[in-house]
Task: inverse folding
C-alpha cells in the first residue's frame, strides 16, 4: 500500500503522516515513513539551491531556473522511487510519503511551468493507492508557519501558497486517487478522517 500526504506548507502533513504510520504499525503492518524532498544528496542539493528563501522556501529567492528546479525535484524523486519506494512496496510494506509528485505539479505549476510537461516529467513515478490532500485556507496555514518564515517575505509566501492551494484543488479533480480532507479540524479529528478514508478505500 502506498499512501501520500499532500497540502500547502503548514497543513499538518508530517504530523498526520506520523500518526497514520503509528496507526498501521499498531495493527501489525510494516511501515516505511518517508518524505520529499528526501534526506539524500539530491534533497540536500535542493535545499541548498532552491529552498534558500527561508523555511517556506521557494518564493523567488531561487538562484536557479524554474525548469532546473523541477528537474531537481524529479531527480530526487527518481532516486526515491528506485531505491526506497519501489523495493519497500515489493517487500509488502506500507509506504507513507510526506509529499510526492503532486507537490511538483502544484508548486512548479504555480511557478509558471507547463502542467503537461510536469506530468510527463514525473511519469516514471509509481502511482500511489491513495493521496490525502490536507486542505485549509492560506490564512490558517500562514498562522501556523508564521514562526517558521521570514517576516518580510510574508506576502510573497501567502500569494504563492494561495496559488498552490488552488492548484491542489484542481489536481484533486484530475487524479482520482486524491481525496480532500479538511485540515482545519483538530489533529485527532483529521486523523480520524484519514483513517476512515484508508479503511474505506484500501482495507475494505
Ligand atoms: P517541505 O515539506 O517544507 O520540506 P522540509 O519541511 O523538509 O523543509 O518542502 C519544502 C518545500 O519544497 C515546500 O515549500 C514545497 C516545495 N516542493 C516543491 O516545490 N516541489 C516538490 O516537488 C516538492 C517535493 C516540494
Result:
Amino acid at each position: 500500500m502506498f499512501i501520500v500526504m499532500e497540502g500547502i506548507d503548514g497543513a499538518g502533513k508530517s504530523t498526520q503522516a506520523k500518526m497514520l504510520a503509528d496507526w498501521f504499525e499498531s495493527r501489525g503492518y510494516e511501515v516505511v515513513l518517508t518524505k520529499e524532498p528526501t534526506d539524500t544528496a539530491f534533497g540536500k542539493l535542493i535545499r541548498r539551491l532552491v529552498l534558500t528563501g527561508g523555511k517556506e522556501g521557494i518564493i523567488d529567492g531561487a538562484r536557479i531556473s524554474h525548469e532546473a528546479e523541477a528537474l531537481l525535484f524529479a531527480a530526487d524523486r527518481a532516486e526515491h522511487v528506485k531505491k526506497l519506494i519501489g523495493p519497500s512496496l515489493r517487500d509488502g510494506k506500507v509506504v507513507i510519503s510526506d509529499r510526492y509528485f503532486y507537490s511538483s505539479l502544484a508548486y512548479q505549476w504555480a511557478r509558471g511551468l507547463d502542467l503537461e510537461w510536469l506530468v510527463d516529467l514525473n511519469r516514471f513515478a509509481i502511482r500511489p493507492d491513495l493521496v490525502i490532500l490536507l486542505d485549509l485556507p492560506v490564512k490558517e496555514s500562514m498562522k501556523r508557519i508564521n514562526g517558521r518564515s521570514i517576516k518580510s517575505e510574508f506576502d510573497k509566501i501567502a500569494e504563492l501558497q494561495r496559488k498552490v492551494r488552488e492548484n491542489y484543488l484542481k489536481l484533486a479533480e484530475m487524479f482520482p486517487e486524491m481525496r480532500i480532507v479538511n485540515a482545519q479540524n483538530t489533529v485527532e479529528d483529521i486523523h480520524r478522517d484519514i483513517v476512515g478514508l484508508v479503511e474505506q478505500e484500501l482495507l475494505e
